[in-house]
Design goal:
3-stranded mixed β-sheet, 3 domains, 4-stranded mixed β-sheet, HSP40/DNAj peptide-binding domain, 301 residues, Helix Hairpins, 22% strand, alpha+beta, single chain
Length: 301
Protein backbone atom coordinates (compact mmCIF):
# COMPACT_ATOMS: atom_id res chain seq x y z
CA UNK A 1 0.00 0.00 0.00
CA UNK A 2 1.54 3.30 -1.08
CA UNK A 3 -0.72 5.52 1.03
CA UNK A 4 -3.04 5.28 4.03
CA UNK A 5 -6.63 6.55 3.70
CA UNK A 6 -6.91 6.98 7.47
CA UNK A 7 -3.88 9.26 7.47
CA UNK A 8 -5.26 11.15 4.47
CA UNK A 9 -8.34 12.03 6.54
CA UNK A 10 -6.38 12.52 9.76
CA UNK A 11 -8.29 9.88 11.74
CA UNK A 12 -7.30 6.70 13.56
CA UNK A 13 -8.04 3.22 12.27
CA UNK A 14 -10.69 2.88 14.95
CA UNK A 15 -12.61 5.93 13.67
CA UNK A 16 -16.32 5.43 13.27
CA UNK A 17 -18.65 6.64 10.54
CA UNK A 18 -19.41 10.00 12.15
CA UNK A 19 -15.75 10.81 12.79
CA UNK A 20 -14.83 9.95 9.20
CA UNK A 21 -17.61 12.16 7.90
CA UNK A 22 -16.60 15.11 10.13
CA UNK A 23 -12.95 14.79 9.11
CA UNK A 24 -13.85 14.78 5.43
CA UNK A 25 -16.17 17.79 5.80
CA UNK A 26 -13.38 19.74 7.48
CA UNK A 27 -10.85 18.91 4.74
CA UNK A 28 -13.36 19.66 1.99
CA UNK A 29 -13.97 23.12 3.43
CA UNK A 30 -10.22 23.81 3.58
CA UNK A 31 -9.01 22.22 0.35
CA UNK A 32 -11.79 22.36 -2.23
CA UNK A 33 -10.58 24.00 -5.50
CA UNK A 34 -13.38 26.58 -5.29
CA UNK A 35 -12.06 27.65 -1.90
CA UNK A 36 -8.37 27.65 -2.92
CA UNK A 37 -8.31 28.19 -6.67
CA UNK A 38 -4.95 27.61 -8.33
CA UNK A 39 -3.42 25.83 -5.30
CA UNK A 40 -2.19 22.57 -6.85
CA UNK A 41 -0.95 21.12 -3.56
CA UNK A 42 -4.35 21.69 -1.93
CA UNK A 43 -6.03 20.16 -4.99
CA UNK A 44 -3.92 16.99 -4.70
CA UNK A 45 -4.67 16.69 -0.98
CA UNK A 46 -8.37 17.19 -1.76
CA UNK A 47 -8.30 14.39 -4.35
CA UNK A 48 -6.56 12.07 -1.91
CA UNK A 49 -9.05 12.92 0.86
CA UNK A 50 -11.89 12.28 -1.59
CA UNK A 51 -10.50 8.86 -2.52
CA UNK A 52 -10.04 8.01 1.17
CA UNK A 53 -13.58 9.07 1.99
CA UNK A 54 -15.00 7.02 -0.89
CA UNK A 55 -13.22 3.94 0.38
CA UNK A 56 -13.87 4.33 4.11
CA UNK A 57 -17.45 5.59 3.87
CA UNK A 58 -18.56 2.37 2.14
CA UNK A 59 -18.94 -0.27 4.89
CA UNK A 60 -18.05 -3.09 2.50
CA UNK A 61 -14.83 -1.58 1.14
CA UNK A 62 -13.81 -0.31 4.58
CA UNK A 63 -14.14 -3.81 6.01
CA UNK A 64 -12.22 -5.36 3.13
CA UNK A 65 -9.47 -2.75 3.45
CA UNK A 66 -9.19 -3.29 7.19
CA UNK A 67 -8.89 -7.05 6.60
CA UNK A 68 -6.14 -6.46 4.05
CA UNK A 69 -8.14 -7.86 1.14
CA UNK A 70 -7.80 -4.64 -0.93
CA UNK A 71 -5.33 -1.79 -0.89
CA UNK A 72 -6.09 1.94 -0.62
CA UNK A 73 -6.72 2.15 -4.37
CA UNK A 74 -9.28 -0.66 -4.25
CA UNK A 75 -7.01 -3.27 -5.86
CA UNK A 76 -7.30 -6.87 -4.69
CA UNK A 77 -4.50 -8.30 -2.62
CA UNK A 78 -3.37 -11.89 -2.43
CA UNK A 79 -1.68 -14.54 -4.54
CA UNK A 80 -2.45 -15.00 -8.20
CA UNK A 81 -4.22 -11.65 -8.57
CA UNK A 82 -3.64 -9.67 -11.74
CA UNK A 83 -3.88 -5.96 -10.73
CA UNK A 84 -6.54 -3.86 -12.34
CA UNK A 85 -6.05 -0.49 -13.89
CA UNK A 86 -6.05 0.87 -17.40
CA UNK A 87 -6.19 -2.19 -19.64
CA UNK A 88 -5.47 -4.51 -16.71
CA UNK A 89 -8.90 -6.06 -16.50
CA UNK A 90 -8.31 -7.28 -12.94
CA UNK A 91 -11.35 -8.56 -11.10
CA UNK A 92 -10.73 -6.25 -8.16
CA UNK A 93 -10.52 -3.00 -10.12
CA UNK A 94 -13.22 -0.62 -8.92
CA UNK A 95 -14.18 3.02 -9.27
CA UNK A 96 -15.63 4.39 -6.05
CA UNK A 97 -18.57 6.74 -6.13
CA UNK A 98 -21.25 8.13 -3.87
CA UNK A 99 -23.80 5.73 -2.41
CA UNK A 100 -26.44 4.96 -4.98
CA UNK A 101 -26.86 2.77 -8.01
CA UNK A 102 -23.89 0.48 -8.41
CA UNK A 103 -22.45 1.22 -5.00
CA UNK A 104 -22.69 -2.43 -4.01
CA UNK A 105 -23.83 -4.19 -0.83
CA UNK A 106 -24.06 -1.96 2.19
CA UNK A 107 -24.75 1.13 0.11
CA UNK A 108 -27.85 1.92 2.13
CA UNK A 109 -25.67 2.91 5.09
CA UNK A 110 -22.90 4.65 3.11
CA UNK A 111 -22.58 8.40 3.01
CA UNK A 112 -23.98 10.47 0.19
CA UNK A 113 -21.15 12.63 -1.11
CA UNK A 114 -23.56 14.95 -2.86
CA UNK A 115 -25.26 15.72 0.44
CA UNK A 116 -21.94 16.70 1.99
CA UNK A 117 -21.15 19.12 -0.83
CA UNK A 118 -24.68 20.44 -0.69
CA UNK A 119 -24.05 21.34 2.96
CA UNK A 120 -20.64 22.83 2.29
CA UNK A 121 -21.10 24.69 -0.97
CA UNK A 122 -24.84 24.94 -1.58
CA UNK A 123 -24.77 22.23 -4.25
CA UNK A 124 -28.11 21.61 -5.89
CA UNK A 125 -27.02 18.27 -7.23
CA UNK A 126 -27.71 15.08 -5.32
CA UNK A 127 -24.77 12.96 -6.43
CA UNK A 128 -21.02 13.44 -6.44
CA UNK A 129 -19.65 16.79 -7.48
CA UNK A 130 -22.37 17.78 -9.94
CA UNK A 131 -23.83 21.27 -9.69
CA UNK A 132 -21.66 22.92 -7.08
CA UNK A 133 -22.28 26.55 -6.18
CA UNK A 134 -19.65 29.06 -7.32
CA UNK A 135 -17.44 30.86 -4.84
CA UNK A 136 -18.31 34.27 -3.40
CA UNK A 137 -16.08 37.18 -4.31
CA UNK A 138 -15.37 40.00 -1.87
CA UNK A 139 -14.11 43.52 -2.45
CA UNK A 140 -14.20 46.97 -0.88
CA UNK A 141 -15.79 49.96 -2.59
CA UNK A 142 -15.02 53.54 -1.53
CA UNK A 143 -17.90 55.96 -2.10
CA UNK A 144 -18.55 59.67 -1.57
CA UNK A 145 -20.49 60.94 1.43
CA UNK A 146 -23.35 62.23 -0.73
CA UNK A 147 -23.63 58.90 -2.57
CA UNK A 148 -24.01 57.16 0.78
CA UNK A 149 -26.70 59.61 1.87
CA UNK A 150 -28.72 59.80 -1.34
CA UNK A 151 -27.94 56.47 -3.02
CA UNK A 152 -26.15 56.02 -6.33
CA UNK A 153 -24.96 53.52 -8.93
CA UNK A 154 -21.30 52.78 -9.44
CA UNK A 155 -19.55 50.64 -12.04
CA UNK A 156 -16.49 48.74 -10.83
CA UNK A 157 -14.02 46.52 -12.65
CA UNK A 158 -13.12 43.23 -11.01
CA UNK A 159 -9.66 41.68 -11.06
CA UNK A 160 -10.63 39.23 -13.80
CA UNK A 161 -11.63 42.14 -16.06
CA UNK A 162 -15.38 41.81 -15.63
CA UNK A 163 -17.37 44.98 -14.87
CA UNK A 164 -20.10 45.06 -12.25
CA UNK A 165 -22.80 47.67 -11.65
CA UNK A 166 -23.33 48.25 -7.94
CA UNK A 167 -26.55 49.87 -6.76
CA UNK A 168 -25.93 51.82 -3.55
CA UNK A 169 -29.15 52.29 -1.55
CA UNK A 170 -29.70 55.57 0.34
CA UNK A 171 -28.45 55.65 3.91
CA UNK A 172 -25.57 53.16 3.77
CA UNK A 173 -22.64 53.48 6.18
CA UNK A 174 -18.98 52.48 6.30
CA UNK A 175 -18.56 48.78 7.01
CA UNK A 176 -21.92 47.83 5.54
CA UNK A 177 -21.78 44.88 3.14
CA UNK A 178 -23.97 44.66 0.05
CA UNK A 179 -24.71 41.19 -1.31
CA UNK A 180 -25.16 41.01 -5.08
CA UNK A 181 -26.71 37.62 -5.73
CA UNK A 182 -25.37 35.63 -8.62
CA UNK A 183 -22.48 38.02 -9.32
CA UNK A 184 -19.72 35.86 -7.86
CA UNK A 185 -17.73 33.00 -9.35
CA UNK A 186 -19.38 30.64 -11.85
CA UNK A 187 -20.93 27.41 -10.63
CA UNK A 188 -19.43 24.00 -11.27
CA UNK A 189 -21.16 21.57 -13.63
CA UNK A 190 -24.11 23.90 -14.10
CA UNK A 191 -24.41 24.82 -10.43
CA UNK A 192 -25.57 28.31 -9.38
CA UNK A 193 -23.03 31.16 -9.32
CA UNK A 194 -21.77 32.61 -6.07
CA UNK A 195 -22.47 36.12 -4.82
CA UNK A 196 -20.46 39.34 -4.79
CA UNK A 197 -20.01 40.81 -1.31
CA UNK A 198 -19.23 44.53 -1.43
CA UNK A 199 -17.96 46.21 1.75
CA UNK A 200 -18.50 49.97 1.63
CA UNK A 201 -16.17 52.67 2.86
CA UNK A 202 -17.65 56.20 2.99
CA UNK A 203 -15.31 59.14 2.47
CA UNK A 204 -15.52 62.08 4.89
CA UNK A 205 -17.17 65.28 3.56
CA UNK A 206 -15.54 68.72 3.96
CA UNK A 207 -18.83 70.33 5.07
CA UNK A 208 -21.29 67.72 6.29
CA UNK A 209 -21.01 65.22 9.11
CA UNK A 210 -23.42 62.44 9.92
CA UNK A 211 -24.91 61.36 13.24
CA UNK A 212 -27.29 58.46 12.75
CA UNK A 213 -29.91 59.59 10.24
CA UNK A 214 -29.23 63.30 10.85
CA UNK A 215 -26.75 65.58 9.12
CA UNK A 216 -24.93 68.47 10.79
CA UNK A 217 -23.25 71.46 9.18
CA UNK A 218 -21.54 74.59 10.51
CA UNK A 219 -22.68 77.72 8.63
CA UNK A 220 -20.78 81.03 8.89
CA UNK A 221 -22.90 84.22 8.96
CA UNK A 222 -21.88 87.89 9.02
CA UNK A 223 -22.31 90.26 11.94
CA UNK A 224 -24.97 92.16 10.01
CA UNK A 225 -26.90 88.94 9.29
CA UNK A 226 -26.67 87.95 12.94
CA UNK A 227 -27.84 91.34 14.28
CA UNK A 228 -30.54 92.13 11.75
CA UNK A 229 -31.55 88.67 10.57
CA UNK A 230 -31.49 87.57 6.94
CA UNK A 231 -32.46 84.98 4.36
CA UNK A 232 -29.37 83.08 3.23
CA UNK A 233 -28.48 80.00 1.20
CA UNK A 234 -27.63 76.91 3.21
CA UNK A 235 -26.13 73.70 1.73
CA UNK A 236 -27.92 70.37 2.12
CA UNK A 237 -27.21 66.87 0.85
CA UNK A 238 -29.73 67.39 -1.96
CA UNK A 239 -28.77 70.96 -2.88
CA UNK A 240 -28.93 74.50 -1.43
CA UNK A 241 -32.07 75.79 0.30
CA UNK A 242 -33.11 79.20 1.61
CA UNK A 243 -32.71 79.53 5.37
CA UNK A 244 -34.12 82.30 7.56
CA UNK A 245 -31.69 83.60 10.17
CA UNK A 246 -33.65 85.35 12.95
CA UNK A 247 -32.56 88.80 14.20
CA UNK A 248 -30.17 88.53 17.12
CA UNK A 249 -28.78 85.16 16.03
CA UNK A 250 -25.59 84.08 17.70
CA UNK A 251 -22.78 81.59 17.31
CA UNK A 252 -23.92 78.03 18.07
CA UNK A 253 -27.58 78.81 17.47
CA UNK A 254 -28.95 75.71 15.72
CA UNK A 255 -31.61 75.78 13.03
CA UNK A 256 -33.39 72.58 11.97
CA UNK A 257 -34.24 71.64 8.41
CA UNK A 258 -36.81 68.88 8.69
CA UNK A 259 -36.49 65.95 6.28
CA UNK A 260 -33.12 67.08 4.94
CA UNK A 261 -31.16 64.30 6.63
CA UNK A 262 -30.06 60.88 5.39
CA UNK A 263 -32.26 59.51 2.65
CA UNK A 264 -34.94 62.09 3.41
CA UNK A 265 -35.77 60.43 6.73
CA UNK A 266 -33.57 62.34 9.15
CA UNK A 267 -33.14 66.10 9.62
CA UNK A 268 -30.32 68.54 8.97
CA UNK A 269 -29.09 70.75 11.80
CA UNK A 270 -27.42 74.04 10.85
CA UNK A 271 -25.07 75.44 13.51
CA UNK A 272 -24.56 79.19 13.00
CA UNK A 273 -21.15 80.75 13.46
CA UNK A 274 -20.89 84.56 13.54
CA UNK A 275 -17.76 85.66 11.69
CA UNK A 276 -16.25 89.12 12.02
CA UNK A 277 -14.70 90.69 8.91
CA UNK A 278 -11.03 90.07 8.19
CA UNK A 279 -8.89 92.05 8.47
CA UNK A 280 -10.42 93.89 11.42
CA UNK A 281 -12.65 96.79 10.33
CA UNK A 282 -11.55 100.18 11.73
CA UNK A 283 -15.08 101.59 11.68
CA UNK A 284 -16.30 98.62 13.71
CA UNK A 285 -13.50 99.20 16.20
CA UNK A 286 -14.55 102.85 16.64
CA UNK A 287 -18.17 101.83 17.11
CA UNK A 288 -17.27 99.30 19.83
CA UNK A 289 -15.17 101.89 21.70
CA UNK A 290 -18.21 104.18 21.82
CA UNK A 291 -20.76 101.44 22.34
CA UNK A 292 -22.70 101.86 25.55
CA UNK A 293 -22.86 98.11 26.11
CA UNK A 294 -19.19 97.50 25.41
CA UNK A 295 -18.62 96.02 28.89
CA UNK A 296 -21.12 93.22 28.33
CA UNK A 297 -19.51 89.84 29.06
CA UNK A 298 -21.19 86.60 28.01
CA UNK A 299 -21.50 83.78 30.56
CA UNK A 300 -18.34 81.74 30.77
CA UNK A 301 -17.79 78.35 32.36
Amino acid sequence: MTWDPYSALGVSRSAGADEIRRAYRKLAKELHPDVRPGDRAAEERFKRANAAFNLLSDPETKTRFDRGEIDADGNERGFGFRPGGPGGGGAGARTYQSAGAGAGPGAESAFDLGDIFSDLFGSTGSRGFARMRGRDIRFTLEIDFLDAVNGAKRRVQLSEGRTLDVGIPPGVESGQVLRLKGQGGPGVQGGPPGDALVELTVRAHPVFRREGQDIHVNLPISLTEAVEGAKIQAPTATGPVTLTVPPGANTNMTLRLKGKGVGGTGDQFVHLQVMLPEPADEELKRFVRQWSNRDHTPPRP
